[in-house]
Amino acid sequence: MSNRAFNFCAGPAALPEAVLRRAQGEMLDWHGKGLSVMEMSHRSDEYVAIAEKAEQDLRDLLSVPNNYKVLFLQGGASQQFAEIPLNLLPENGTADYIETGIWSKKAIEEGRRYGNINVAASAKAYDYLNIPGQNEWNLTPGAAYIHYASNETIGGLEFDWVPQTGDVPLVVDMSSDILSRPVDVSQFGMIYAGAQKNIGPSGLVVVIIREDLLGKARSVCPTMLNYKVAADNGSMYNTPASYSWYLSGLVFEWLKEQGGVDAMEKRNRAKKDLLYGFIDRSAFYSNPIAVNVRSWMNVPFRLADERLDKAFLAGADERRLLNLRGHRSVGGMRASIYNALGLDAVEALIAYMAEFEKEHA
Ligand code: PMP
Predict the structure, then answer these.
(1) Residue whose CA is closest, atom 4 of ligand 1?
(2) pTM higher than 0.90
(3) Does the pLDDT of residue 2 top 80, yes or no?
């Protein structure tokens, strides 16, 4: 019998129980080799096979075209905020950024340390309740790239469309919605995602980059941050986050067994429809974000009276519905419902929300 709680944490987030059990089974003695993956040389045949299979499974899941490299790097998504301009922004060039919340803002602030950043549009104009349409963007002709975050994990604002940028490479922070539904990789110059939501444990960031964007790094770019160096060395210029990479590979296998991103889209659509539907029908809970740009993965909501927040969280903990507190910068509640959570988690949450509302409304 499993004693696992429903974990609604934004990240590091819930992992599929089947994956954890498999890792547990392989922990001490991987495939009869007498050692743990954690203890393997990253240059050994066994580990290289593990790493290559993980990459291939991710390529299969997202139908990554052959002219893209898939990199397994460290430093989290935050390090990419510097790594992207160091690799892709010429010293006198300009990059366009779309600001839709805290994460894209952080990318802008970090980018400004390295060059000219033009904020081409900001959701501030809509109080972060909607995303400005592309017809409202002030794009720079000849920009080095356009950066945006497809899902703002804290604010709960998610693009339901892909910007059309012609020849200008589109760079997207997909940390909190990668693998949640199908995506056409060929529309992007580069996709990056911190692992600890829909991929695997923290300590890893996945970069999917079109080959023609490699080899443009500034001379001051640290070797460790140079995409071409990483690509030329199979993401093993130095010791990679080997165990996180292995565990991510197990998640990719699990995703394939579940039916891939098409199956995830179905399951995630059902989850978010159920939760937003319940919130919208209730006079006690609210989420004011424009319906088409509501995040599928991170559902922020408020109680009618914030003085009840503490009691709500305490009751949730008692029912083993964990980590529902909203981000410290915005307050309220947030339910992160990544791939690893099933419909049963959302049903349990809604049952509790209904019960709490009945008691306190
Ligand atoms: N971008 C987004 C959209 C995120 O959700 C996060 C983390 N929550 C980050 C960037 C930063 O990721 P990391 O902690 O891996 O640096």
Answers:
(1) 175
(2) yes
(3) no
